[in-house]
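TA notes. Do not distribute before section.
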Amino acid sequence: MSKKKTKYYTVWKGHHTGVFESWDDCKAQIKNFEGAQYKSFATFEAAKKALKGNYKDYIGKSKTFKSELSDEQLKKIGQPNYNSISVDAASSGNPGKMEYRGVDTKTKKQLFIQGPFDEGTNNIGEFLALVHGLAFLKQHKSDRIMYTDSRTAMSWVRKKTCNTKLERNEKNKPVFELIDRAIKWLETNSYKTTIVKWETKAWGEIPADFGRK
């Protein structure tokens, strides 16, 4: 018996646009394409409908999620604090096209977005998203907390460093300029924002997720 297909990929911007039936086919359309726009859907009908619409109306839309944790574990974790913002990053490759954004945790309203940048990594994007979020909340004198699903980025922010193994070159110069600015901001600014790990196993994907795969 053949395995039922569970995902279809809509490509709004790429080498070729349309609906593709495998991640490999989708990846071929977005690889080395600046500003590629794509997302996965559970049915062909949904993917085809999305193709006729606007990419920005679909990124980050949550999918049906049911936690596999026990009731006891879920009770211990509790619910998200909605007096918060959430940040996340996406990278098509390692390194690859990288972008990051921040949203209101409850409404998912986008508060900021940066990218895509050439030759970034997901960890770098998560780090930059956190620092951008800290600066954003400080500028708006907000007492909200901030969620991330990256322990690595949380550690880098705590240590005021970006411990990436990516080497600088001319192509990723804009990425490293952002990294340098982020580190300088951490070194010269104080903040009261609490950074909290998003409990993906209990709550599903973080609200700022780009929702592409």
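Switch to the second chain here.
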Amino acid sequence: MFEKIIENVTRCIELTEEEKQSFTDLLDCKAIPAKTILLREGEICQFEGYIHKGCIRTYYIDENGFEVTLYFAVEDWWVSDIASFHEQKPSRLYIEALEDSEIYMLTPQTKDILLESIPKFERVFRMLVQRNLTTLQNRLVNTISKPATERYLDFIKVYPSIPQRVPQYYIASYLGVSKEFVSTIRKRLSNK
């Protein structure tokens, strides 16, 4: 049941069998139905979650009332509002399950217990934050500097399974283009 998350963690650190057991004992395994909102703007994020199965979308609502997708998270990714979780302040984000999902969650309390009992987990979470920051930084630079077609191609490299799993308007929201533009790009690329 926990093989994938253990594999994810042991890319960063080595764990004894006892440490693996201590870690998995702290995880809260949740089955999340599709279309469930895990976090709403104004709420305080109470989880960092590893996605065992499913697809999650993180977004915000802009001043015009439009949803702007910040990122997707699929199997073997982690999801949270890092700022809200660590600072215990209200979130500006929404986190939604787009598919039936299984997520292994840590709360602020269980994460503190984990880091106190197995300090080398600090490295795991530091690496996750670095990966997240790198992804967001690359996205920001691409949004500013690349035309929409190149942004779509970069999106496909990062999220190869997403076009088959989510509606085009979510992808358009992520790219900052219309869903018609995404449809045109996809048709043009499939004809090549």
